[in-house]
Amino acid sequence: MHFQPLQVPLRDGRSAVIREATANDAAALFVLDRAIVRARQGIVKHEDELPPDAATFADQRERAGLTKQDGSAFPLVVEGEGGALLGEASILRIGYRMLRHVGVLGIGVHPEAQGLGVGRLLMRHLLQWVRAHRDADGQRVLRVELHVRADNARAIALYRALGFTHEGTRRAFLRADDGTLVDDFLMGLLLTDPEGT
Ligand SMILES: CC(C)(COP(=O)(O)OP(=O)(O)OC[C@H]1O[C@@H](n2cnc3c(N)ncnc32)[C@H](O)[C@@H]1OP(=O)(O)O)[C@@H](O)C(=O)NCCC(=O)NCCS
């Protein structure tokens, strides 16, 4: 089931389009990813750990399964008025049959577009899309999970507002630039209830 593109208002008065990501977005997603990592907020990678070029990045997305068209990947982007990508979010299902009802969520908003409602829009529409999806045999995603740094208050507030709960802590999971050890949280949302997003 494909996502129908939607025009959406942002908090600064501008509008944007939320749509399904395609393989053609790889170069723009590469630029977006770099900008998010360079801002050093909420992320776990350094810039020099990113793929060196857009082609390698595209290859990694493909190998991760994010470009699959078989109902195992749900990638969304928000495109600004000038055509640049303001944010992206995806849910990727785990391949094993016993785990296929589990989707792993990732999200990132361009530093210059943060706080405008892009993250909330992406989360809301992504969860709606996944809730509505049914496989040919009627199966669907029943659990969405994510990992978030314990010091990422903005992201945690957003996830909680959408019903995600804290399920566990990986203590001292990452070492910040100043050497501080930071926990990270596993958060989960069950889609077994009839409503929710
Ligand atoms: C976390 C992130 C996805 C949120 O997206 P965003 O577009 O900036 O957030 P929104 O403008 O949609 O705000 C969503 C919610 O975040 C919370 N929020 C926003 N700004 C906040 C702040 N400065 N402090 C605490 N919470 C804040 C609010 O709960 C807000 O809800 P509201 O819509 O009721 O105001 C985005 O900031 C981001 O990509 N950050 C860097 C990378 C990252 O942290 N990714 C997530 C890794 S798990």
From TrEMBL:
CDD domains: NAT_SF. Pfam families: Acetyltransf_1. Gene3D superfamilies: 3.40.630.30. Residues 16-192 form the N-acetyltransferase domain. The keyword Transferase applies. Keywords: Transferase. It comes from the Bacteria. One of its GO terms (molecular function) is acyltransferase activity, transferring groups other than amino-acyl groups. InterPro entries: Acyl_CoA_acyltransferase (IPR016181), GNAT_dom (IPR000182). PANTHER family: N-ACETYLTRANSFERASE (PTHR43072). This is GNAT family N-acetyltransferase. It comes from Pyxidicoccus fallax. The lineage of its organism: Bacteria, Pseudomonadati, Myxococcota, Myxococcia, Myxococcales.
